Amino acid sequence: MNIFVVNSGSSSIKYQLFKMPSKNPVCSGLLDRIGLSGSTITHRVFIGDEKKVIKKSLSLSDHEAGLKEVAALLTDKESGVIKDPEEISVAGHRVVHGGESFAATVVINEAVKEEIKKLFPLAPLHNPANYMGIEVAEKIFTKAVQVAVFDTAFHQTMPEKAFRYAIPQSFYKDLRIRAYGFHGTSHKYVSERAAEYLHNDAAKVVTIHLGNGCSMAAVDAGKSIDTSMGFGPLSGLVMGTRSGDIDPSVIFHLVDEVGYDLDKVKALLNKQSGMQGLTGFSDMRDISIAIAAGDREAEMAYEMYAYRIKKYIGSYAAVLNGLDAIVFTAGVGENDANIRKCICANLDFLGIKLDEEKNSQQSTGLREINANNARVKILIVPTNEELEIAQQCYELLNN
Asked: Which regions in the chain score pLDDT beneath 50?
């Protein structure tokens, strides 16, 4: 079954093609700067252990032009992996927000599309772009079943006491204001890989997704019971440009006393805060360089970043009533040995003890970095959201 995974952004499209049930993609790519000057496409074809990379600079007026270019690469005589776009059986779409309407992966029909549009206000930067990807894929891959996989779906197992806010009930009942959580596709994928590694379907696991956006989840026997992001992706951990948890009184003070309007507050907390606001850098690699050069502010920001994660580990160990493993994933979580060391320091009481030699080793794939006598496993599990989307599509249509 040829499953084409589409992750459509406002000016970009990431994609992978899987020939399921194989878990190895046959090609992947990125369209960037769609609708802007200097559009590019990077297309990778995987043939055995070899990889062929095609890079192009071109003019892409819109997403439809972009996907047509991808279809041409997929069917190219020299580097193509299929003969005709009609060979795509399924187009699997990442949709960021499913609200309370979608707790599972679904085949897209007109009713589903209308519901996704109704959710635009909950994810104004993401859902419209995701929806655009669906509309375009329907035109390009005319024989494919279109399937939606929602970032919020995995967290729909959270109990009401975890997802409700302590505001008047009408705000939930009438406006559906509650915590939804995000990065669910990643949390689901890595928690399942961890449970397989532990040979324990009932494992109590804390998953830690650290990229430019950061979130954590408490997972009990494969179900999310709490997560750090809430109504939107701003709350929780310190992130690349987002503040994470902040006292709402700060917002009132900025508006009432400093003269900020709400648009300026929104920009501050989403785009100018987090590690960017603290250090001038949003990328952990740049921050590490600054620390090595003696930048005390960068060092303090690094400590704040780790401290916030440590607090969430403690709270999630409490709500899980135990802990079998913590899992690091995504760009920072998988590659920054020092941040893992800082996070795991002084957590012996919880049974978390890092092996520094294992932690410092440069290797790929799932691996454990805890001390041999540690009660709790510390795992690095590379995330693969595209594979998770493909697997969910495959399982949905085969069941």
From this structure: none
Closest C-alpha among 247, 190, 236, 246 to residue 377: 190
**230 and 320 inside one domain:** yes
Least Cα distance to 207 among 380, 389, 385 occurs for: 380
Backbone angles phi, psi at 286, to 5 degrees: -70, -35
C-beta separation of 2 from 21 below 8 A:
no
- Phi/psi of residue 29, nearest 5 degrees: -175, 175
Residues 117 and 263 in one domain: no
Kindly state the tokens that stand for 43.
């297309």
Tell whether 394 is covered by a domain.
Answer: no
Out of 32, 151, 220, 261, which one is annotated catalytic? 151
76 & 208 share domain: no
How far apart, in whole angstroms, are the C-alpha atoms of residue 311 and residue 302? Answer: 15
CATH of the domain at 67: 3.30.420.40
Domain hosting 72: range is 2-150
The pair of structure tokens assigned to 141 is 């891959």
Model-level pTM?
A: 0.91
Cβ neighbours for 119, distance < 8 A, ≥ 6 positions apart: 97, 98, 99, 101, 127
Reported as a single tens digit per residue, the pLDDT across 250-263 is 999 999 999 999 99
- Residue 85: strand, helix, or coil: helix
What are the tens digits of pLDDT across the range 33-48? 888 888 899 999 998 7
DSSP H or E segment with residue 41: strand 39-47
151 is a catalytic site residue: yes
Structure tokens at 323: 């802990």
User: Could you tell me if residue 233 is inside a domain?
Assistant: yes
With vertex at residue 317, the alpha carbon angle to CA 186 and CA 191, rounded to the nearest 5 degrees, is: 25
Decide if 161 is inside a domain: no
